[in-house]
Protein backbone atom coordinates (compact mmCIF):
# COMPACT_ATOMS: atom_id res chain seq x y z
CA UNK A 1 0.00 0.00 0.00
CA UNK A 2 1.39 3.39 -1.06
CA UNK A 3 1.62 6.04 1.66
CA UNK A 4 0.78 9.61 0.70
CA UNK A 5 1.11 12.74 2.82
CA UNK A 6 -0.57 16.02 1.87
CA UNK A 7 -1.84 19.30 3.24
CA UNK A 8 -5.48 18.67 2.34
CA UNK A 9 -7.42 15.60 1.31
CA UNK A 10 -10.75 16.20 -0.43
CA UNK A 11 -13.22 13.33 -0.57
CA UNK A 12 -15.70 13.83 -3.39
CA UNK A 13 -15.40 15.54 -6.79
CA UNK A 14 -18.75 17.28 -6.93
CA UNK A 15 -19.24 21.04 -6.99
CA UNK A 16 -17.92 21.75 -3.50
CA UNK A 17 -14.97 19.38 -3.62
CA UNK A 18 -13.85 20.57 -7.04
CA UNK A 19 -14.17 24.24 -6.13
CA UNK A 20 -12.10 23.79 -2.99
CA UNK A 21 -9.48 21.53 -4.59
CA UNK A 22 -8.88 23.90 -7.50
CA UNK A 23 -8.63 26.98 -5.30
CA UNK A 24 -6.44 25.37 -2.65
CA UNK A 25 -4.01 23.83 -5.12
CA UNK A 26 -3.61 27.02 -7.13
CA UNK A 27 -2.90 28.92 -3.91
CA UNK A 28 -0.04 26.59 -3.06
CA UNK A 29 -1.49 23.76 -0.97
CA UNK A 30 -0.64 20.12 -1.63
CA UNK A 31 -4.07 18.64 -2.44
CA UNK A 32 -5.24 15.07 -3.02
CA UNK A 33 -8.76 14.52 -4.40
CA UNK A 34 -10.64 11.23 -4.15
CA UNK A 35 -13.55 10.32 -6.42
CA UNK A 36 -14.78 6.76 -6.74
CA UNK A 37 -17.52 7.49 -9.26
CA UNK A 38 -17.99 10.30 -11.81
CA UNK A 39 -16.13 13.61 -11.82
CA UNK A 40 -18.60 16.46 -11.45
CA UNK A 41 -20.78 14.57 -9.01
CA UNK A 42 -24.56 14.45 -8.98
CA UNK A 43 -25.15 17.93 -10.36
CA UNK A 44 -23.35 17.40 -13.65
CA UNK A 45 -24.30 13.79 -14.23
CA UNK A 46 -27.74 13.27 -12.69
CA UNK A 47 -29.13 16.51 -11.29
CA UNK A 48 -29.02 20.18 -12.19
CA UNK A 49 -27.48 19.90 -15.65
CA UNK A 50 -29.48 17.04 -17.22
CA UNK A 51 -32.77 18.15 -15.68
CA UNK A 52 -32.45 21.67 -17.08
CA UNK A 53 -31.46 20.25 -20.46
CA UNK A 54 -34.58 18.06 -20.55
CA UNK A 55 -36.71 21.01 -19.46
CA UNK A 56 -35.29 22.92 -22.44
CA UNK A 57 -36.43 20.14 -24.78
CA UNK A 58 -39.88 20.29 -23.22
CA UNK A 59 -39.94 24.06 -23.62
CA UNK A 60 -39.21 23.79 -27.35
CA UNK A 61 -41.98 21.23 -27.84
CA UNK A 62 -44.44 23.36 -25.87
CA UNK A 63 -43.55 26.50 -27.83
CA UNK A 64 -44.33 24.80 -31.16
CA UNK A 65 -47.83 24.01 -30.00
CA UNK A 66 -48.52 27.40 -28.38
CA UNK A 67 -47.39 30.04 -30.87
CA UNK A 68 -50.67 31.33 -32.36
CA UNK A 69 -50.82 34.29 -29.97
CA UNK A 70 -47.58 35.56 -31.55
CA UNK A 71 -48.93 35.39 -35.09
CA UNK A 72 -47.30 32.04 -35.82
CA UNK A 73 -49.54 29.05 -36.48
CA UNK A 74 -49.55 26.34 -33.83
CA UNK A 75 -47.89 23.14 -34.91
CA UNK A 76 -47.92 19.64 -33.48
CA UNK A 77 -44.40 18.94 -32.21
CA UNK A 78 -42.82 15.72 -33.43
CA UNK A 79 -41.05 14.58 -30.28
CA UNK A 80 -38.12 12.18 -30.42
CA UNK A 81 -37.65 11.23 -26.76
CA UNK A 82 -34.39 9.43 -27.45
CA UNK A 83 -33.25 12.53 -29.34
CA UNK A 84 -34.10 14.66 -26.31
CA UNK A 85 -31.93 12.35 -24.21
CA UNK A 86 -29.16 12.75 -26.81
CA UNK A 87 -29.44 16.49 -26.25
CA UNK A 88 -29.15 15.93 -22.50
CA UNK A 89 -26.03 13.81 -22.93
CA UNK A 90 -24.51 16.35 -25.30
CA UNK A 91 -24.97 19.07 -22.69
CA UNK A 92 -23.29 16.89 -20.04
CA UNK A 93 -20.44 16.07 -22.42
CA UNK A 94 -19.94 19.76 -23.23
CA UNK A 95 -19.61 20.72 -19.57
CA UNK A 96 -17.71 17.60 -18.44
CA UNK A 97 -14.21 18.80 -19.45
CA UNK A 98 -14.53 21.64 -16.95
CA UNK A 99 -14.85 19.02 -14.19
CA UNK A 100 -12.45 16.50 -15.68
CA UNK A 101 -9.59 14.72 -13.95
CA UNK A 102 -7.16 16.12 -16.52
CA UNK A 103 -8.15 19.71 -15.83
CA UNK A 104 -7.71 19.37 -12.09
CA UNK A 105 -4.42 17.59 -12.48
CA UNK A 106 -3.44 20.62 -14.52
CA UNK A 107 -4.13 22.72 -11.42
CA UNK A 108 -1.70 20.54 -9.49
CA UNK A 109 -4.28 18.36 -7.73
CA UNK A 110 -3.45 14.68 -7.36
CA UNK A 111 -6.66 12.89 -8.39
CA UNK A 112 -7.23 9.31 -7.23
CA UNK A 113 -10.28 7.52 -8.68
CA UNK A 114 -11.13 5.46 -5.60
CA UNK A 115 -13.63 5.57 -2.76
CA UNK A 116 -12.17 6.56 0.59
CA UNK A 117 -12.75 5.42 4.16
CA UNK A 118 -11.28 6.67 7.42
CA UNK A 119 -8.86 4.47 9.33
CA UNK A 120 -7.98 7.11 11.96
CA UNK A 121 -8.66 10.73 12.79
CA UNK A 122 -6.37 11.94 9.99
CA UNK A 123 -5.84 8.91 7.73
CA UNK A 124 -7.96 7.66 4.84
CA UNK A 125 -7.56 4.51 2.79
CA UNK A 126 -8.56 4.55 -0.87
CA UNK A 127 -7.80 1.51 -3.00
CA UNK A 128 -4.08 0.82 -2.66
CA UNK A 129 -3.36 4.17 -1.00
CA UNK A 130 -3.19 5.31 2.60
CA UNK A 131 -3.38 9.11 2.77
CA UNK A 132 -2.38 11.19 5.77
CA UNK A 133 -3.57 14.78 5.63
CA UNK A 134 -3.29 17.81 7.88
CA UNK A 135 -6.89 18.67 6.99
CA UNK A 136 -9.64 16.60 5.38
CA UNK A 137 -12.69 17.92 3.52
CA UNK A 138 -15.71 15.62 3.10
CA UNK A 139 -17.69 16.67 0.02
CA UNK A 140 -19.46 13.43 -0.86
CA UNK A 141 -22.84 14.98 -1.65
CA UNK A 142 -26.15 13.12 -1.50
CA UNK A 143 -28.21 10.53 -3.35
CA UNK A 144 -31.87 9.94 -4.09
CA UNK A 145 -33.76 8.84 -1.00
CA UNK A 146 -35.89 5.75 -1.60
CA UNK A 147 -38.80 5.55 0.86
CA UNK A 148 -39.84 2.25 2.48
CA UNK A 149 -42.96 1.76 0.37
CA UNK A 150 -44.29 -1.78 0.31
CA UNK A 151 -43.44 -3.52 -2.97
CA UNK A 152 -41.20 -0.75 -4.30
CA UNK A 153 -38.11 -2.95 -4.36
CA UNK A 154 -39.92 -5.44 -6.61
CA UNK A 155 -40.66 -2.99 -9.45
CA UNK A 156 -38.36 -1.30 -11.93
CA UNK A 157 -38.62 2.26 -10.61
CA UNK A 158 -36.57 5.28 -11.66
CA UNK A 159 -34.73 7.94 -9.65
CA UNK A 160 -32.98 11.07 -10.86
CA UNK A 161 -29.86 8.88 -11.13
CA UNK A 162 -31.38 6.30 -13.50
CA UNK A 163 -33.90 8.43 -15.42
CA UNK A 164 -31.27 9.59 -17.90
CA UNK A 165 -30.61 6.03 -19.09
CA UNK A 166 -34.25 5.71 -20.23
CA UNK A 167 -34.59 5.95 -24.01
CA UNK A 168 -38.19 4.81 -24.37
CA UNK A 169 -40.67 7.62 -23.77
CA UNK A 170 -42.99 6.89 -20.84
CA UNK A 171 -46.59 6.61 -21.94
CA UNK A 172 -47.77 7.53 -18.45
CA UNK A 173 -45.17 8.60 -15.90
CA UNK A 174 -46.11 8.27 -12.25
CA UNK A 175 -44.03 10.48 -9.95
CA UNK A 176 -43.95 9.96 -6.20
CA UNK A 177 -42.93 13.31 -4.74
CA UNK A 178 -44.17 16.82 -5.47
CA UNK A 179 -41.01 18.74 -4.63
CA UNK A 180 -38.80 20.64 -7.10
CA UNK A 181 -37.37 17.52 -8.81
CA UNK A 182 -40.77 15.88 -9.16
CA UNK A 183 -42.46 19.00 -10.51
CA UNK A 184 -39.68 19.82 -12.96
CA UNK A 185 -39.66 16.30 -14.38
CA UNK A 186 -43.45 16.27 -14.48
CA UNK A 187 -43.56 19.34 -16.69
CA UNK A 188 -40.67 18.24 -18.91
CA UNK A 189 -42.29 14.88 -19.62
CA UNK A 190 -45.77 16.30 -20.09
CA UNK A 191 -44.49 18.78 -22.64
CA UNK A 192 -42.69 15.97 -24.45
CA UNK A 193 -45.98 14.11 -24.76
CA UNK A 194 -46.23 11.77 -21.78
CA UNK A 195 -49.20 11.56 -19.47
CA UNK A 196 -48.05 12.48 -15.98
CA UNK A 197 -49.45 11.95 -12.49
CA UNK A 198 -47.71 13.40 -9.42
CA UNK A 199 -48.44 11.75 -6.07
CA UNK A 200 -47.61 13.93 -3.06
CA UNK A 201 -48.32 12.93 0.54
CA UNK A 202 -48.60 16.56 1.69
CA UNK A 203 -48.67 19.77 -0.36
CA UNK A 204 -46.82 20.03 -3.66
CA UNK A 205 -43.92 22.49 -3.39
CA UNK A 206 -44.78 22.58 0.29
CA UNK A 207 -41.56 24.28 1.37
CA UNK A 208 -42.33 27.38 -0.68
CA UNK A 209 -44.61 30.37 -0.24
CA UNK A 210 -48.15 28.96 -0.67
CA UNK A 211 -49.34 31.78 -2.92
CA UNK A 212 -46.37 31.39 -5.25
CA UNK A 213 -46.49 27.60 -5.20
CA UNK A 214 -50.19 27.59 -6.05
CA UNK A 215 -49.50 29.61 -9.18
CA UNK A 216 -46.99 26.99 -10.37
CA UNK A 217 -49.32 24.11 -9.50
CA UNK A 218 -52.21 25.79 -11.34
CA UNK A 219 -50.01 26.24 -14.42
CA UNK A 220 -48.91 22.60 -14.44
CA UNK A 221 -52.45 21.37 -13.97
CA UNK A 222 -53.43 23.61 -16.87
CA UNK A 223 -51.00 21.69 -19.05
CA UNK A 224 -52.73 18.43 -18.18
CA UNK A 225 -50.58 17.17 -15.31
CA UNK A 226 -52.54 15.38 -12.59
CA UNK A 227 -51.21 16.53 -9.22
CA UNK A 228 -52.62 14.45 -6.36
CA UNK A 229 -51.91 16.24 -3.09
CA UNK A 230 -52.55 14.73 0.35
CA UNK A 231 -52.23 11.35 -1.34
CA UNK A 232 -50.05 8.77 0.37
CA UNK A 233 -48.43 6.01 -1.70
CA UNK A 234 -49.11 2.93 0.40
CA UNK A 235 -48.00 0.11 -1.92
CA UNK A 236 -46.44 -0.39 -5.35
CA UNK A 237 -46.87 -3.44 -7.58
CA UNK A 238 -46.35 -4.57 -11.16
CA UNK A 239 -49.28 -5.71 -13.32
CA UNK A 240 -48.10 -6.78 -16.74
CA UNK A 241 -46.39 -3.82 -18.35
CA UNK A 242 -47.95 -1.37 -15.89
CA UNK A 243 -46.89 -0.17 -12.48
CA UNK A 244 -49.68 0.36 -9.94
CA UNK A 245 -49.38 2.78 -7.03
CA UNK A 246 -51.98 1.92 -4.41
CA UNK A 247 -52.89 4.95 -2.29
CA UNK A 248 -53.84 4.88 1.36
CA UNK A 249 -57.43 5.80 0.50
CA UNK A 250 -57.75 2.73 -1.73
CA UNK A 251 -57.22 4.26 -5.17
CA UNK A 252 -55.05 2.43 -7.72
CA UNK A 253 -53.03 4.78 -9.95
CA UNK A 254 -51.73 3.05 -13.08
CA UNK A 255 -48.77 4.09 -15.21
CA UNK A 256 -46.10 2.75 -17.52
CA UNK A 257 -43.13 4.11 -15.53
CA UNK A 258 -42.49 5.24 -11.97
CA UNK A 259 -40.11 8.00 -10.85
CA UNK A 260 -39.35 8.26 -7.13
CA UNK A 261 -38.48 11.85 -6.22
CA UNK A 262 -39.11 12.28 -2.50
CA UNK A 263 -35.87 13.93 -1.48
CA UNK A 264 -32.18 13.31 -0.92
CA UNK A 265 -30.05 11.46 1.63
CA UNK A 266 -26.43 12.31 2.55
CA UNK A 267 -23.61 10.12 1.23
CA UNK A 268 -21.95 9.00 4.46
CA UNK A 269 -22.15 5.22 4.14
CA UNK A 270 -18.79 3.52 3.70
CA UNK A 271 -16.73 6.43 5.02
CA UNK A 272 -16.27 4.80 8.47
CA UNK A 273 -16.74 8.21 10.06
CA UNK A 274 -16.80 6.78 13.58
CA UNK A 275 -13.15 5.80 13.22
CA UNK A 276 -12.36 9.48 12.72
CA UNK A 277 -14.61 10.67 15.54
CA UNK A 278 -16.93 12.44 13.09
CA UNK A 279 -20.51 12.70 14.36
CA UNK A 280 -23.55 12.50 12.09
CA UNK A 281 -27.24 13.44 12.22
CA UNK A 282 -30.16 12.22 10.06
CA UNK A 283 -29.48 15.24 7.81
CA UNK A 284 -25.79 14.51 7.34
CA UNK A 285 -22.52 15.26 9.10
CA UNK A 286 -22.72 17.47 12.16
CA UNK A 287 -20.79 20.70 11.57
CA UNK A 288 -20.35 23.98 13.42
CA UNK A 289 -20.69 27.46 11.94
CA UNK A 290 -17.24 27.15 10.36
CA UNK A 291 -18.22 23.80 8.75
CA UNK A 292 -15.83 21.92 11.03
CA UNK A 293 -16.95 18.50 12.25
CA UNK A 294 -16.54 17.00 15.73
CA UNK A 295 -13.01 16.13 14.55
CA UNK A 296 -11.22 19.48 14.37
CA UNK A 297 -9.10 18.28 11.42
CA UNK A 298 -12.13 17.37 9.31
CA UNK A 299 -14.60 19.66 7.51
CA UNK A 300 -17.82 18.81 5.67
CA UNK A 301 -19.32 20.90 2.87
CA UNK A 302 -22.24 20.78 0.45
CA UNK A 303 -25.14 18.33 0.66
CA UNK A 304 -23.41 16.06 3.16
CA UNK A 305 -23.18 18.92 5.67
CA UNK A 306 -26.98 18.94 5.95
CA UNK A 307 -27.49 22.69 5.51
CA UNK A 308 -29.13 22.68 2.09
CA UNK A 309 -28.89 20.52 -1.01
CA UNK A 310 -27.89 23.05 -3.64
CA UNK A 311 -24.89 23.10 -5.95
CA UNK A 312 -24.38 26.79 -5.27
CA UNK A 313 -24.43 26.11 -1.52
CA UNK A 314 -21.57 23.64 -1.97
CA UNK A 315 -19.59 26.19 -3.97
CA UNK A 316 -20.20 28.80 -1.28
CA UNK A 317 -19.07 26.37 1.42
CA UNK A 318 -15.84 25.78 -0.49
CA UNK A 319 -15.08 29.49 -0.34
CA UNK A 320 -15.74 29.60 3.39
CA UNK A 321 -13.35 26.81 4.28
CA UNK A 322 -10.60 28.05 1.95
CA UNK A 323 -10.33 31.05 4.23
CA UNK A 324 -9.99 28.97 7.39
CA UNK A 325 -7.95 26.02 6.08
CA UNK A 326 -5.48 27.90 3.88
CA UNK A 327 -5.09 31.12 5.82
CA UNK A 328 -6.05 30.17 9.35
CA UNK A 329 -8.60 32.98 9.45
CA UNK A 330 -12.03 32.77 11.09
CA UNK A 331 -14.86 32.10 8.65
CA UNK A 332 -18.48 31.15 9.21
CA UNK A 333 -21.09 29.88 6.78
CA UNK A 334 -24.35 31.77 6.64
CA UNK A 335 -27.63 30.67 5.10
CA UNK A 336 -29.85 33.76 4.93
CA UNK A 337 -28.56 34.80 1.50
CA UNK A 338 -28.60 31.35 -0.13
CA UNK A 339 -31.30 31.29 -2.85
CA UNK A 340 -33.19 28.34 -4.24
CA UNK A 341 -35.12 27.94 -7.47
CA UNK A 342 -37.50 25.51 -9.13
CA UNK A 343 -37.17 25.68 -12.92
CA UNK A 344 -40.72 24.94 -13.94
CA UNK A 345 -42.58 27.37 -16.19
CA UNK A 346 -43.29 29.63 -14.40
CA UNK A 347 -40.13 29.48 -12.32
CA UNK A 348 -40.27 29.75 -8.54
CA UNK A 349 -37.41 31.28 -6.53
CA UNK A 350 -36.82 32.18 -2.90
CA UNK A 351 -34.10 33.74 -0.80
CA UNK A 352 -34.20 34.53 2.89
CA UNK A 353 -37.48 34.39 4.75
CA UNK A 354 -40.84 33.62 3.20
CA UNK A 355 -43.74 35.88 4.14
CA UNK A 356 -44.95 33.45 6.81
CA UNK A 357 -41.46 33.03 8.27
CA UNK A 358 -40.90 36.79 8.27
CA UNK A 359 -44.21 37.43 10.06
CA UNK A 360 -43.28 34.89 12.73
CA UNK A 361 -39.83 36.43 13.16
CA UNK A 362 -40.61 40.15 12.92
CA UNK A 363 -44.32 40.63 13.62
CA UNK A 364 -45.60 44.17 13.09
CA UNK A 365 -42.16 45.41 12.03
CA UNK A 366 -42.55 43.55 8.74
CA UNK A 367 -43.57 45.35 5.54
CA UNK A 368 -44.36 43.61 2.25
CA UNK A 369 -43.46 45.18 -1.09
CA UNK A 370 -45.07 43.61 -4.14
CA UNK A 371 -45.10 44.04 -7.91
CA UNK A 372 -46.86 41.90 -10.51
CA UNK A 373 -45.41 40.70 -13.82
CA UNK A 374 -48.56 41.97 -15.53
CA UNK A 375 -47.26 45.55 -15.09
CA UNK A 376 -43.84 44.82 -16.64
CA UNK A 377 -43.63 45.92 -20.26
CA UNK A 378 -41.20 43.19 -21.34
CA UNK A 379 -43.42 40.52 -19.82
CA UNK A 380 -46.40 42.02 -21.67
CA UNK A 381 -44.47 42.06 -24.96
CA UNK A 382 -43.52 38.39 -24.63
CA UNK A 383 -46.86 37.29 -23.12
CA UNK A 384 -45.21 36.10 -19.91
CA UNK A 385 -47.28 38.11 -17.46
CA UNK A 386 -48.07 35.29 -15.06
CA UNK A 387 -46.33 35.89 -11.74
CA UNK A 388 -45.27 38.35 -9.07
CA UNK A 389 -42.39 39.38 -6.87
CA UNK A 390 -42.76 40.20 -3.20
CA UNK A 391 -40.07 41.34 -0.83
CA UNK A 392 -40.17 41.09 2.95
CA UNK A 393 -38.72 44.27 4.47
CA UNK A 394 -37.77 45.13 8.05
CA UNK A 395 -36.54 48.64 8.89
CA UNK A 396 -35.81 49.36 5.25
CA UNK A 397 -33.78 46.22 4.61
CA UNK A 398 -34.96 43.11 2.73
CA UNK A 399 -34.99 39.93 4.81
CA UNK A 400 -36.51 37.71 2.13
CA UNK A 401 -37.82 37.67 -1.42
CA UNK A 402 -40.26 35.40 -3.26
CA UNK A 403 -40.47 35.46 -7.05
CA UNK A 404 -42.72 33.36 -9.25
CA UNK A 405 -42.70 33.93 -12.98
CA UNK A 406 -40.45 34.09 -16.04
CA UNK A 407 -36.73 34.12 -15.15
CA UNK A 408 -37.42 34.09 -11.42
CA UNK A 409 -34.19 32.13 -10.93
CA UNK A 410 -32.25 34.97 -12.56
CA UNK A 411 -34.04 37.76 -10.70
CA UNK A 412 -33.50 36.25 -7.25
CA UNK A 413 -29.74 36.87 -7.42
CA UNK A 414 -30.27 40.60 -6.82
CA UNK A 415 -31.97 39.86 -3.52
CA UNK A 416 -29.26 37.42 -2.48
CA UNK A 417 -26.78 40.24 -3.05
CA UNK A 418 -28.94 42.63 -1.05
CA UNK A 419 -29.33 40.30 1.93
CA UNK A 420 -25.66 39.24 1.90
CA UNK A 421 -24.53 42.87 2.04
CA UNK A 422 -27.37 44.26 4.18
CA UNK A 423 -28.41 46.67 1.43
CA UNK A 424 -31.41 48.92 1.88
CA UNK A 425 -34.39 49.15 -0.41
CA UNK A 426 -33.26 52.61 -1.46
CA UNK A 427 -30.10 51.13 -2.95
CA UNK A 428 -32.14 48.67 -5.01
CA UNK A 429 -34.45 51.48 -6.12
CA UNK A 430 -31.40 53.46 -7.18
CA UNK A 431 -30.23 50.93 -9.76
CA UNK A 432 -31.06 51.40 -13.44
CA UNK A 433 -32.19 48.42 -15.51
CA UNK A 434 -32.34 48.50 -19.33
CA UNK A 435 -35.81 49.04 -20.75
CA UNK A 436 -37.65 46.86 -21.41
CA UNK A 437 -36.36 43.95 -19.35
CA UNK A 438 -37.72 41.48 -16.84
CA UNK A 439 -34.95 42.78 -14.55
CA UNK A 440 -36.95 45.99 -14.10
CA UNK A 441 -39.20 44.03 -11.75
CA UNK A 442 -36.54 44.24 -9.03
CA UNK A 443 -36.34 47.99 -9.32
CA UNK A 444 -40.10 48.39 -9.54
CA UNK A 445 -40.80 46.35 -6.42
CA UNK A 446 -38.31 48.54 -4.56
CA UNK A 447 -40.18 51.53 -5.91
CA UNK A 448 -43.44 50.02 -4.70
CA UNK A 449 -41.97 49.96 -1.20
CA UNK A 450 -41.49 53.74 -1.34
CA UNK A 451 -44.78 54.58 -3.09
CA UNK A 452 -46.87 55.12 0.06
CA UNK A 453 -44.04 57.07 1.65
CA UNK A 454 -43.79 59.48 -1.29
CA UNK A 455 -47.20 59.66 -2.95
CA UNK A 456 -49.52 59.09 -0.01
CA UNK A 457 -47.74 61.22 2.57
CA UNK A 458 -49.31 64.55 3.55
CA UNK A 459 -45.93 65.65 4.89
CA UNK A 460 -44.25 65.13 1.53
CA UNK A 461 -47.02 67.01 -0.23
CA UNK A 462 -46.68 69.96 2.17
CA UNK A 463 -42.93 70.09 1.61
CA UNK A 464 -43.36 70.00 -2.17
CA UNK A 465 -45.99 72.78 -2.08
CA UNK A 466 -43.75 74.90 0.12
CA UNK A 467 -40.73 74.45 -2.14
CA UNK A 468 -42.77 75.16 -5.27
CA UNK A 469 -44.16 78.32 -3.71
CA UNK A 470 -40.74 79.79 -2.92
CA UNK A 471 -38.62 78.52 -5.82
CA UNK A 472 -37.73 81.42 -8.18
Structure description:
The chain is α/β, with parallel strands linked by helices and 472 residues long. The chain has three domains: 2-39 and 100-143 and 265-327, FAD/NAD(P)-binding domain (3-Layer(bba) Sandwich); 152-263, FAD/NAD(P)-binding domain (3-Layer(bba) Sandwich); 340-455, FAD/NAD-linked reductase, C-terminal dimerisation domain (Enolase-like, domain 1), CATH 3.30.390. It is 33% helix and 24% strand. The chain has 14 helices and 23 strands. The chain has helices at residues 15-26, 41-45, 48-64, 81-95, 101-106, 180-191, 210-222, 311-327, 355-362, 377-381, 408-420, 425-429, 440-455, 458-470, and strands at residues 2-11, 31-34, 110-112, 117-118, 123-126, 129-138, 142-144, 172-176, 195-199, 226-228, 233-239, 242-247, 252-255, 257-260, 264-266, 280-281, 284-285, 298-300, 340-342, 347-352, 366-372, 388-394, 397-405. Strands 1, 2, 3, 4, 5, 6 and 18 form a seven-stranded mixed sheet that branches. Helix 7 (210-222) links the parallel strand 9 (195-199) and strand 10. Helix 3 runs parallel beside helix 6 (180-191). The termini are far apart. The relative contact order is 0.11. The model has no long low-confidence stretch (mean pLDDT 95).
Amino acid sequence: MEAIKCDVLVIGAGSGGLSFAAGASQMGADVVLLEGHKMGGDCLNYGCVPSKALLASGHMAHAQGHSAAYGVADGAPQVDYAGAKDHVQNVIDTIAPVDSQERFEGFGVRVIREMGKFVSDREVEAGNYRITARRIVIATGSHAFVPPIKGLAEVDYLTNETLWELREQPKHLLIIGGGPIGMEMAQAHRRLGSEVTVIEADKALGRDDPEAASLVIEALRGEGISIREKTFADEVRQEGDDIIVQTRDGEALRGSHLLVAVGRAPNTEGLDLSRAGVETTPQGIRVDASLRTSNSRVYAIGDVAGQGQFTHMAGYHAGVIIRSILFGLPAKAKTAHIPRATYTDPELAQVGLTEAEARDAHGDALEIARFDYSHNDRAIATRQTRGFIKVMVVKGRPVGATIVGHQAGELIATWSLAIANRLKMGQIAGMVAPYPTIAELNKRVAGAYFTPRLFESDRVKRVVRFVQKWLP
